[in-house]
Structures are given as C-alpha cells and as structure tokens.
Design a protein that fits this description.
10 helices, 2 domains, 6-stranded mixed sheet, Lyase 2-enoyl-coa Hydratase, Chain  A, domain 2, globular, 2-enoyl-CoA Hydratase, Chain A, domain 1
Length: about 250
C-alpha cells in the first residue's frame, strides 16, 4: 500500500500510518486504504486483533488539509465517516499505540479503538476549532460517552493540546507508559487478545458498544442470547478441557 504498512503475525494485524513527513496526516489515499484494510481484517478469520500506530514517532496529525481536489466536501466527509464506522463496527479487538501527536481526526482515530495505550510524550487534541472546523471522525459521538457531555464540550470548544497524563486522568486512555516500554506493553496486550476466544470477545465488544443504546431489559436478553451461543461452542469446551488438564486453552473461534 502507498500510505500504510500492514504486518500480520500470530493473529495480530499491525497497521502503521506511513506518511512520517506529514506526521501521518491522512490524505484521500490513506482514507481509502484504511477502509480497505478494515474490510480485509473483518473478513479474514485468522486476523484476530488490530493494532493501529504511526511511523516516525508520531501517531497522526489529523486530516491532511492540503489534500484538495474538486470532490464535494459533503462527499469527502461521508467517506471519512465510513472509516470511523468501519472501525467502530469491527467485531474484533482494536488497539491504538500512540506516540507523539494524535490530534483532530487522528485523536478520534485513536479514541475509536477499544483500547488506547500511549507513551508519556504523546499529545492529544480535538484541534478542529483551532482550524475553523467542527469535530469529526466520530468524535461528537465518542467523546460524550467517554468523558460526559460537559467535559466533551470543553475538549472540543477550547481545542487545547493535552499531555498523555492529562488525557489518561480524564479516562480516555487505558495506560500511559515510558516510551521504551510502549511496544512491549502493546505487543503483550495484542498477544493476549489474539489468544482469546474470538466469538466471546466479539460478542462482548458488540454488547458493550451497544450499551448506551439499549435498555437493561434488552441488554440482559442480548447477554442471554450471546451466552447461549458461547456456552455451546467448541471454544467453551476447549476452555473447560484446558482447565482440567492444567494447560492454556487453544481457541479457534468456533
């Protein structure tokens, strides 16, 4: 691919945004390639976990505002929204590994992942207002659910650049670690998720994503239906067998 590096190993797909000369700002080609990769990962059963990161010590400086063409702005934004939706709907665990800047759409690309681990030098911002723009890439939906409406408005309206520690204190990050530990921490988490039961993890993720949209009655019904499937799966049998044999289970997603 022209703007992405894609590496597959042991069920983990690592996608690296690869425009370091632009701090990995996303142009039309990268949006298109991200959409294609997300579709590939969704369809490939051997892909169990997606890790998103950036090249050159930066995560993503947002959309490339110099990438202009004659496409109508609404059409462009709907294409960007398609990527945000694909990431959100991906029925597999996703991890963002963040070094350097994660601002604008780049910030929301990270926050759109299930888990976010950042180095101590990472910086985050809903920078849109500083560019005369409104929030996008799903930020208007994600932020209030993560930090509450008033704090989301503060982050979006002031568009300040925050340190990883500040963002972690808001509950937007899972971990902040020294830069020299970031790769090991993310690799360890990704390996654990890749070794987990794919069906159970997928259903759990989907139910949690839907939590704010359903009643408790619907939630417990969804839990019952999902558990009815998982309890009779080969993976559940393998989990019990492995426990009795005092070994690690080997899950196959069936």
């Amino acid at each position: 691919m022209e703007t992405l590096q894609v590496l597959r190993a042991d069920g983990v797909v690592t996608v690296t945004l690869d425009r370091p000369e632009k701090k990995n700002a996303v142009n039309r080609t990268m949006w298109s390639e991200l959409l294609a990769v997300l579709d590939e990962v969704a369809a490939e059963t051997s892909d169990r976990v997606l890790v998103l990161t950036g090249a050159g010590g930066e995560f993503c400086s947002g959309a490339d505002l110099s990438d202009a063409d004659d496409t109508h702005q609404l059409q462009k934004m709907r294409a960007i929204g398609d990527v945000a939706l694909r990431l959100h709907r991906l029925a597999k665990p996703t991890l963002a590994k963040v070094r350097g800047v994660a601002v604008g759409a780049g910030c929301n690309l990270a926050l759109g992942c299930d888990l976010v681990v950042a180095s101590e030098d990472a910086r985050f911002s809903q920078i849109f207002a500083q560019r005369g723009l409104s929030i996008d890439f799903g930020g208007s939906w994600v932020l209030p659910r993560l930090v509450g409406l008033h704090k989301a408005k503060e982050l979006a309206l002031f568009a300040d650049i925050l340190s990883a520690t500040q963002v972690h204190e808001l509950g937007l990050l899972n971990r902040v670690v020294p830069d020299d530990q970031l790769d090991d921490v993310v690799d360890g988490w990704a390996a654990r998720l890749a070794a987990g039961p794919p069906l159970a993890l997928s259903m759990t993720k989907t139910m949690l994503n839907n939590a704010f949209a359903v009643s408790m009655e619907q939630a417990v019904e969804d839990e019952a239906r999902c558990q009815a499937v998982n309890a009779t799966s080969a993976d559940a049998v393998e989990a019990v067998t492995a426990f009795l044999q005092k070994r690690r289970p080997h899950f196959e997603g069936r």
